[in-house]
Amino acid sequence: MKIYNKQEYKELRKELRKNLTPAEIKLWKHLQNSQFEGRKFRRQHSIGNYIADFYCPKEKIVVELIGSIHFNANNEQNDINRENYLKTLGIKILRFENDDIFKKTEIALVNIKSNFIK
């Protein structure tokens, strides 16, 4: 059974890539083209029924940026469900608030790097 980039999410992934948030744009500038520690990151990558902001297949890490949309009961439960599902696949989830990407970019990048397999 295919779990990565299911066909039924293709148009949604494409739309999300066209409409990145300002925080996603800023972080993507550091992650794109395998320029961050030589790791390939994919943006708006679907895994199962979820779409991750950024995914590094080699490290099995999802990077999620958290904006105000995540701060309500329904979306918080969805985030918990997503995290539980990804954990069953051995994928680690790193979450950063959008504000952290703008004000503490280097700290976020160090945190991501520290989760790479040595």
Task: Name some characteristics of this structure.
single chain; 118 residues; alpha+beta; Endonuclease, Chain A; 4-stranded mixed beta sheet; 5 helices; globular
Q: Give the strand order, joined by hyphens, for the main sheet.
A: 1-2-3-4
Give the low-pLDDT segments: none
Please give the number of β-strands: 4
CATH superfamily: VSR Endonuclease
Report the CATH architecture: 3-Layer(aba) Sandwich
Overall shape:
globular
- Structural class by secondary-structure content: alpha+beta
Please give the largest β-sheet: 4 strands, mixed
N-to-C order of helices and strands: HHEEEHEHH
TL;DR?
The chain has 118 residues and is α+β, with helices and mostly antiparallel strands. The model has no long low-confidence stretch (mean pLDDT 93).
Task: Characterize the structure shown.
With 118 residues, the chain is of the alpha+beta class. The chain has one domain (7-113): Endonuclease, Chain A (3-Layer(aba) Sandwich). Helix content is 43%, strand content 21%. It contains five helices and four strands, in the order ααβββαβαα. The chain has a four-stranded mixed beta sheet, with helices on both faces. The longest helix has 16 residues, at 73-88. The protein is globular. The protein starts with 9 loop residues before the first helix and ends with a helix. The model has no long low-confidence stretch (mean pLDDT 93).
